[in-house]
Design brief:
Blueprint lengths: L9 H14 L8 E5 L13 E2 L9 E2 L3 E4 L13 E5 L12 E5 L11 E4 L3 E3 L15 E4 L9 E2 L10 E3 L7 H9 L4 E5 L3 E6 L4 E2 L10 E2 L2 H11 L3 E4 L7 H12 L4 E5 L10 H8 E6 L3 E2 L5 E6 L14 E7 L3 H20 L8 E6 L3 E2 L5 E11 L2 E6 L8 H4 L3 E5 L5 E2 L4 E6 L3 H4 L2 E6 L4 H10 L4 E6 L2 H9 L6 E3 L11 H7 L5 E15 L20 E4 L4 H12 L13 E2 L2 H9 L5 E5 H6 L3 E15 H4 L5 H7 L2 H8 L4 E2 L6 E5 L1
Parallel strand pairs: 5-6, 13-16, 13-17, 14-15, 17-21, 19-24, 22-25, 29-30, 33-34, 33-35
Antiparallel strand pairs: 1-12, 2-11, 3-10, 4-6, 4-7, 5-9, 8-9, 18-20, 20-21, 22-28, 23-27, 24-25, 24-26, 26-28, 31-36, 32-35, 32-36, 32-37, 32-38
Helix pairs in contact: 3-6, 4-5
């Protein structure tokens, strides 16, 4: 049995897995199936090249509604001296004389005796019977005022496809237009790669299905939904199996059962080395454990193995046991999703006879310094957008359990093992999850967190703009603006000496950067306390009580600046506050800490208290403003922002949130040059 967490490089893990698949005869396209050529074939992978059975068109066809002629009969026709042609009643009978024409519709078989078509709008009927649109096709004769060349307005045999030519090669993924080309080449059925069947088995006694009432200690099982969607999107057919509880025999039974009918098994969770992590033992008992642990984060405890079908590890005499590959994925959703991209997608592509997806790569500058584990490749999620002349990448949460870091991510930056991290402003290569065109419509706001920003994101989407926010605090937002890393910042930094918001800080941290300051909201700050306020916390003075625990905002956050100002004003010693040095980055994060019972209270906004059903003790009123560098204020990218700030719908939505006033929203507060 392999030792857990060997820390082998990703390339080595892939090589060992590929060798095991080759030995089992599973390295290559799976068997093919023949299907009908119709819309259901969309997205399938051709198992065999498609060669034309017939030409298209397979006859000389009229390319226009008009009159079929011998081109030589039109010789000499000019504007001032037209040529008159007699209209034959039949296009089938070959005329015995020259100067004869016959009416044809677009797509009609061209009579053998003609070699050109004159569009109907370019002829003149010569008799009364032919006058008028309805009778234009039935004149006794017509005049033409321009000669035509051979094969004028004629679709020749094989103009599109010539019989026996290659239409599409094997391995091609079928698009709508491909289906038309195949049908035009005379095919009604095609051979395509069979879709790999993938069983997904979530494990864990704490898991519950989506829709089941949740209670403390239970976790909604959604990893299988993500993985199933990935598999289907990559051309496979996923089947989510029932949750297997943390019991080695139950998990082994589940794996053995699906091994008979599926091409690949994904076993979720239980891949670490805890007391209830059974995946490696299950695989080793009914197959071969090939890899357990790779030097990649997130996704460290991946398992790669081969299962003997139906769990028959010891074959009988002269019996060959078929193998089924199994991948043990970590239980954390980000780890499971990313490692599925690393191992499942390329394997399905190999079985389908296609190529793995090749993401678009862009170069971008990091907005902040990041550290990485020195021995592992670090897959860092980033938000990406263009600010000025530079493409910038803002790192998102690194937690392996933070699925929103993937749903918000525009791409991945791979920090190679041995580097130990990257510096702010360093150029990085980003593998995009999102079309590159969307990045050009992205507005970056970096600064203080406010719950109305999510609402602003929703309204800007109506104007084809994508708002990406990074919650780093007011002061860090101003510094980011000075470095050209955002289009604007949200800030509520109170100057304790002047009583004004933001101005002195802008001058100090953004020297030489012309900005305009817009009013956004006035909001209430106060104490977030548990429902019913069981400890009777009603003022800042209560924070120094020995039975009260607190959680603070990070240094540089406007809320932290406000708190420190009020503590000094009220002569309250911050060292006496239990939890003053404990920090988090958003109003919702500190509200969650209070709601969960980790702490008794925090300073935050009323909307955060409402969101998590906490009580709120109002203490202060503050101005939250938008700081916009002049170069972006006048940029077309931000035009929709100003429309939204003055729209009745947005103002009504914000004013409906607790603790907000909007009377000055969108007004120019000041301009600092």
């Amino acid at each position: 049995m392999s030792i857990y967490l060997e820390d082998i490089p990703l390339s080595q893990a892939k090589f060992k897995f590929a060798e095991a698949l080759k030995e089992a005869g599973l390295w290559g396209r799976l068997d093919a199936e023949v299907i009908q050529v119709d819309e259901r074939a969309l997205g399938r992978i051709l198992a065999e090249s498609v060669w034309a059975k017939i030409s298209s068109p397979h006859y000389h066809a009229a390319a226009m509604d008009g009159f079929a002629v011998r081109s030589k009969d039109t010789a000499g026709a000019v504007l001032t001296s037209p040529v008159e042609l007699i209209v034959s009643s039949s296009s089938i009978v070959v005329p015995t004389s020259t100067g004869v024409t016959s009416y044809v519709d677009t797509g009609d078989v061209l009579p053998d005796w003609v070699d050109a078509v004159i569009p109907i709008e370019n002829v003149e009927p010569t008799d009364k019977q032919g006058k008028g649109t309805d009778n234009l096709r039935k004149p006794h004769s017509i005049k033409i005022r321009e000669a035509v060349t051979p094969w004028f307005h004629v679709r020749l045999i094989g103009e599109d496809i010539v019989a026996t030519q290659l239409i599409l090669p094997a391995g091609h993924k079928l698009r709508p237009v491909d289906l038309g080309a195949i049908a035009a080449g005379g095919h009604d059925r095609i051979s395509v790669a069979r879709k790999p069947r993938v069983a997904i088995i979530p494990t864990g006694s704490e898991l519950i299905d989506i829709g089941v009432k949740i209670k403390p200690g239970s976790i909604i099982e959604f990893n299988s939904v993500i993985l199933g969607a990935q598999v289907n999107g990559w051309g496979g057919v996923a089947e989510r199996r029932p949750i297997a509880i943390d019991n080695i025999s139950d998990i082994r039974d589940s794996v053995s059962q699906v091994s008979l009918e599926f091409d690949l098994i994904l076993l979720i969770a239980g891949s670490s080395a805890g007391a209830e992590d059974f995946s490696s033992r299950v695989i080793d008992s009914i197959g071969e454990l090939i890899v357990h642990g790779i030097a990649v984060r997130p996704g460290h405890p991946v398992i790669l193995g081969m299962i003997d079908k139906a769990g028959q590890k010891q074959p009988g005499e002269n019996e060959i046991v078929e193998k089924v590959p199994i991948i043990g994925l970590p239980g954390y959703p980000v780890s499971a999703t990313l490692t599925s991209e690393l191992f499942v997608e390329p394997l399905l592509a190999k079985w389908l006879g296609s190529k793995p997806a090749e993401p678009v790569n862009v170069q971008a500058k990091l907005t902040r310094k990041i550290t990485s584990p020195p021995g592992d490749d670090d897959y860092m999620r980033v938000a990406v957008g263009r600010v000025g002349d530079d493409m910038i990448a803002a790192p998102l949460s690194k937690g392996a359990g933070v699925i929103t870091s993937l749903s918000r991510a525009d791409g991945i930056v791979i920090v190679p093992r041995g580097s130990q991290g990257l510096q702010v402003g360093e150029a990085v290569n980003v593998k995009l999850y999102r079309p590159a065109a969307e990045l050009e419509r992205t507005i970056f706001i970096i600064g203080s967190h406010d719950m109305t920003l999510d609402l602003l994101t929703q309204y800007l989407a109506q104007y084809d703009r994508r708002l990406v926010s990074a919650n780093v605090g007011s002061l860090a937002g101003l510094i980011a603006l000075s470095r050209g890393e955002a289009h604007f910042a949200g800030s509520h930094l109170l100057d304790p000496e002047s009583g004004e918001y933001n101005r002195s800080y802008i001058k100090q941290y953004m020297p030489g950067v012309p900005v305009k300051v817009l009013a956004f909201v006035t909001r209430e700050q106060g104490l977030l306390v548990q429902k019913g306020n069981p400890k009777g916390i009603n003022s800042l003075q209560d924070l120094i009580r020995t039975d009260v625990t607190f959680i603070n905002r990070q240094r540089g956050a406007g809320t932290r600046v406000l708190l420190d100002y009020e503590l000094r004003k009220n002569q309250i010693d911050q060292s006496l506050i239990s939890g003053y040095s404990r920090e988090d980055y958003t109003h919702l994060a500190v509200a969650a800490a209070v709601s969960s019972g980790r702490v008794d209270c925090s300073l935050g906004i009323a909307a955060a208290a409402r969101a998590l059903e906490l009580d709120f003790v109002p203490l202060f009123s503050e101005r939250y403003e938008l700081i916009i560098p002049l170069e972006y204020f006048e940029n077309v990218l931000l035009e929709p922002l100003f429309r939204v700030l003055h729209s009745k719908q947005f103002r009504k939505a914000v004013s409906g949130m607790p603790g907000y006033r909007i009377e000055s929203m969108g007004e120019l507060v000041c301009e600092i040059i």
